[in-house]
Design goal:
Layout (H helix, E strand, L loop, with lengths): L10 H7 L6 H6 L10 E5 L5 H8 L3 E6 L2 H14 L4 E4 L12 E7 L7 H11 E14 L6 H12 L13 H9 L3 E14 L1 H9 L10 H18 L5 E13 L6
Helix pairs in contact: 1-4, 1-8, 6-9, 8-9
Pfam family, one: Methyltransf_11
Organism: Photorhabdus khanii subsp. guanajuatensis
InterPro entries: Diverse_substrate_MTase, Methyltransf_11, SAM-dependent_MTases_sf
Amino acid sequence: MSAKIDFGKTALDYVIHREGFPPALLIRLKPYGVGIVGQRVLDLGTGTGTLARQLAQVGAEVIGMDIAEPLLKQARILDIEAKVFVNYKLGNAENIPLQDETQDIIIVGQCWHWFNPEQAGSECFRVLRNGGTMVICHFDWLPLPGNVVEATENLILKHNPKWNMSGGSGIYPRWLKDLAKSGFVGIETFSFDLNIPYTHERWCGRIRASAGVSASLAKERVHEFDEEHQELLAKNFPQDPLLIPHRVWAVIARKLRSYK
């Protein structure tokens, strides 16, 4: 997309309607040694801290980093409500403001595609301790023939033809190559599918908080899209709540550097 993406513009919808990864992700990651009491974890692209909070709740020492201060502001409010602490920092993946080999885990949820992979990969390798674990994960809706996701994506493209993230499968083989080129080894992946219930109101809010709508369109165009989206749902998908198919996908890799 050529338009500048700014998720800070979506902060209110983001905090209400983007709930983040399901708890099942951390259950699946635990056998890989991710999400352990006392671990030092960096959550890159933390947004409103949905993944960082889950890790803090299991006892990890979490730094949440993002380039959007409005999202971090909302994250701090949510942490108070959840009675957990995450150390939030402004920063970007291409120039991580942390010392070498200080983190046990780096996790990147739903945002590796926004990074420069060579620079981000090099920085992640630098910041991870030897033997540390790198995780890139996604939680994506699935457009299937005739379903509400496909119809919603077509509407986004009508209002924002430059949006280039439609038609996804929730699988990202390119990230494996990115990690290997950065020096990571022992690369593994897993995925599982879930149906997530959304009321019409929440689905509209979730879509407004996406890259193709509020993060890139002017306010008046967001309003036009939202009105048409509501009409589309009422006419063609009247069931409420909607069951939205999603796929959770993760790639796990290790930093194992020999010292000579």
